[in-house]
Amino acid sequence: MDAPSRTVHNVTLTEADRVRLGGVDCEAGALIRRSFEFLLDREPNTSILHAFSLPVIGEYFPEYERWIATAAGGK
């Protein structure tokens, strides 16, 4: 069995999106980490865009924003 491919991703997150997606007390790093958990449950790392703004996930997966609000412990 082949070893999984290592990938690198450049993710941007504005302060307004951090608060909207994760809540005022959610740290940016934790929000991004949980967002990758969400993505990796749905697709291989090699299918994830190499550069994107965090809210773009919702364009591909409409359930993302509801899921991340719960996972981030925000709202």
Q: Can you put this structure into words, describing what you see?
A:
With 75 residues, the protein is mainly alpha-helical. Helices cover 44% and strands 8% of the residues. It is built from four helices and two strands, in the order βααβαα. It has helices spanning 15-22, 28-40, 57-60, 64-71; strands at residues 10-12, 51-53. The chain has a two-stranded parallel ribbon. Helix 2 crosses helix 4. The protein is globular and about 40 Å long. The mean pLDDT is 92.
Order of helices and strands: EHHEHH
Rg, rounded, reads 13 Å
* Average predicted confidence as pLDDT: 92
The total count of helices amounts to 4
Counting helices, strands and paired strands, the structural category is mainly alpha
Q: Return residue spans where pLDDT drops below 50 for at least 5 consecutive residues.
A: none
| DSSP, total strands | 2
Q: Percentage of helical residues?
A: 40-55%
Strands in their spatial order, largest beta sheet: 1-2
